[in-house]
Specification:
Layout (H helix, E strand, L loop, with lengths): L8 E5 L3 H12 L3 E5 L11 H7 L2 E4 L13 H6 L4 E5 L8 H9 L3 E6 L11 H4 L4 E3 L8 H19 L15 H5 L2
Parallel strand pairs: 1-2, 1-3, 3-4, 4-5, 5-6
Amino acid sequence: MGRELRGSTLGVIGYGAIGKEVVRVGKALGMRVLIHDPYVKGIEQTPFEELLKESDFVVPLAVATAETENLMSAAAFAKMKKGAYLVNVSRGNLVDEAALEAALDSGHLAGCAMDVGRAPDQMPTPRLAARADVIATPHTAGLTLPAIEHQSMETVAQAGEILRGRAPKGAVNTERWKRKELLNK
């Protein structure tokens, strides 16, 4: 049996471009949407632990950093609502796969959908992908003509910003950006 999305709670961790789109789609489907991203101001935030506790579907979309390594750990899975689902379509290193497998084995999580993982090619780990309670697909986010065109134009725009002596739009470490000093010499 499927699960009705309308009326379910969607927890989105990370409110970048993908997070914003997931939130938009969730709302369009009639879901209650909770957002957690401590780096974004001006939106209604839900504390991380509360998001885990209340969400029927948890979608981690945080930036991959040392701070977010294994964000979805055994402790995080234990705080999730019993019968919830994890949807990882962002970065494999956000999820502790051994902890995920244990949460699925125990029945605490109802299932998982993923198109990324910790396999050497960033694909879902074959062991997890083979489970009946996991839907695993190849990560193909950038493999459409519109996506390739968008990425190409974005790269050109970023190069233009660098040539103008400015940090590119979307740079996550502008405070450490040294290219500006190199261009001004």
